[in-house]
């Protein structure tokens, strides 16, 4: 939601009426001439839809591990990027992609080892029906994966209604943008979409959240049925990233029961919360003790190479496979699978799930200690290396403070530590670094945050 060039009907720092971590396209004068020229060139060549982070955008030209460098050699700490889950330019992934690109890269209508070995290795990790007898289907992006998941859900249930949380993001295809309310008020939702509140553990008793969500599911599913749509699926990111990062475990147990009672499928969107990021489990949904019908995955899967997939229970995809078939020219190509296989090997071989658990706890404990002396910190939450820090103007009233969050994000950027903000009020600091984040990286982030809070 970050703006690159002037948009006539839009305040530069807002989209859909909400403050965002935005670059103001009308504020170029304070920038270095070279950076200003690059932004103007980008706007001219790429158009108004491309967005930039930060009041002073970051130029990057090289990365390694948790670090990025610009053309002037300035070093940044990347505490935001979950795409390169095992770190920028990990040598094992780079070598695997180079080797496969030098050998063969073609589509999936031939028998190839890479795609089979990946599915064979990955499927057991899901557990439940999918782990025992499920299938994997490959795409290029998480948006494509969620699009395919909903196509299958609608075909299987013969319904089209979709329920999501209030600020969910699930993709930018025509279908997935239609059930991604976080894209803002100017991005229309489908008439077959209903929203329910996210499990806000800061403002509600965590023990009641699952029941509250389940009751909301039942109400909205009934309305979908009354309007002739019925419930095809409930789609959830189990860390509720765009909703503000909520990590209470077990919340989704009563929800999946309500979804199934209404005749729908449960789709676990693991693009943000999967691949060990939560620290406590390899897949985010496993923290809730549930058995989804479809699981989608993307961004971190190939450590920056565009590869994504769904995993699906056999009975859910049976009629789709019989009636519809599926083909994707680039989804699951040899190079993509080399990247995915190598990324998986690094995740397991370097113990990155365990690292996420340990370093995530260090970060949360460090920020919680700051909250004792900084009343602007209302809540510190998350799991593993996905952390949300809620900024408030009144701790007693729990009043969201988007201005404070934006100030912190941009002051951190000035000190070359990169984070962002999220949530319906854009007041939640989003800390989501590569899983190779070290103790030294955590110290740099915590020291910088303490410095910024003291301003």
From TrEMBL:
<dbReference type="InterPro" id="IPR049704">
    <property type="entry name" value="Aminotrans_3_PPA_site"/>
</dbReference>
<dbReference type="InterPro" id="IPR015422">
    <property type="entry name" value="PyrdxlP-dep_Trfase_small"/>
</dbReference>
<comment type="similarity">
    <text>Belongs to the class-III pyridoxal-phosphate-dependent aminotransferase family.</text>
</comment>
<dbReference type="GO" id="GO:0008483">
    <property type="term" value="F:transaminase activity"/>
</dbReference>
<protein>
    <submittedName>
        <fullName>Aspartate aminotransferase family protein</fullName>
    </submittedName>
</protein>
<dbReference type="Pfam" id="PF00202">
    <property type="entry name" value="Aminotran_3"/>
</dbReference>
<dbReference type="InterPro" id="IPR015424">
    <property type="entry name" value="PyrdxlP-dep_Trfase"/>
</dbReference>
<keyword id="KW-0808">Transferase</keyword>
<dbReference type="InterPro" id="IPR015421">
    <property type="entry name" value="PyrdxlP-dep_Trfase_major"/>
</dbReference>
<keyword id="KW-0663">Pyridoxal phosphate</keyword>
<dbReference type="InterPro" id="IPR005814">
    <property type="entry name" value="Aminotrans_3"/>
</dbReference>
<keyword id="KW-0032">Aminotransferase</keyword>
């Amino acid at each position: 939601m970050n703006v690159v060039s002037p948009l006539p009907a839009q305040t530069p720092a807002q989209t859909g009426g909400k403050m965002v971590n935005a670059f103001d396209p009308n504020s170029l004068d304070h920038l270095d001439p070279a950076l200003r020229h690059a932004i103007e060139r980008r706007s001219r060549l790429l158009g108004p839809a491309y967005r930039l982070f930060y009041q002073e955008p970051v130029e990057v030209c090289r990365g390694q591990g948790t670090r990025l460098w610009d053309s002037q050699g300035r070093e940044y700490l990347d505490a935001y990027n979950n795409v390169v889950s095992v770190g920028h330019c990990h040598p094992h992934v780079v070598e695997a992609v180079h080797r496969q690109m030098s050998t063969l890269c073609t589509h999936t209508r031939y028998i190839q080892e890479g795609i089979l070995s990946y599915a064979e290795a990955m499927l057991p990790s899901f557990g439940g029906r999918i782990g025992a007898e499920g299938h994997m289907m490959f795409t290029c992006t998480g948006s494509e994966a969620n699009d395919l998941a909903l196509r299958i859900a609608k075909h299987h249930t013969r319904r089209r209604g979709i329920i999501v949380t209030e600020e969910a993001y699930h993709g930018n295809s025509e279908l997935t943008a239609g059930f991604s309310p976080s894209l803002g008020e100017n991005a229309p939702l489908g008439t077959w979409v209903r929203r329910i509140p996210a499990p806000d553990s800061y403002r509600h008793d965590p023990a009641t959240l699952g029941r509250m969500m389940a009751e909301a599911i039942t109400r909205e599913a009934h309305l979908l049925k009354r309007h002739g749509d019925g419930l095809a699926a409930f789609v959830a990111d189990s860390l509720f990233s765009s909703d503000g990062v909520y990590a209470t475990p077990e919340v989704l147990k009563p929800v999946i029961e309500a979804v199934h009672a209404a005749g729908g499928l449960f789709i676990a969107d693991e693009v943000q919360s999967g691949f060990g990021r939560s620290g406590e489990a390899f897949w985010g949904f496993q923290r809730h003790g549930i058995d989804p019908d479809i699981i989608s995955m993307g961004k971190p899967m190939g450590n920056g190479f565009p590869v994504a997939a769904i995993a699906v229970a056999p009975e859910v995809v049976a009629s789709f496979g019989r009636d519809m078939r599926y083909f994707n020219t680039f989804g699951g190509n040899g190079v993509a699978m080399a990247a995915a296989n190598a990324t998986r090997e690094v995740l397991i071989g370097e113990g990155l799930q365990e690292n996420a658990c340990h370093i995530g706890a260090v970060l949360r404990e460090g920020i919680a200690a700051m909250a004792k002396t900084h009343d602007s910190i209302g809540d510190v939450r998350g799991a593993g290396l996905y952390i949300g820090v809620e900024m408030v103007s009144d701790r007693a009233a729990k009043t969201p403070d988007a201005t404070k969050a934006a100030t912190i994000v941009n002051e951190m950027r000035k000190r070359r530590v990169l984070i962002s903000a999220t949530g319906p009020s854009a007041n939640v600091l989003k800390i989501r670094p590569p899983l190779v984040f070290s103790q030294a990286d955590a110290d740099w982030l915590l020291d910088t945050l303490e410095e910024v809070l003291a301003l």
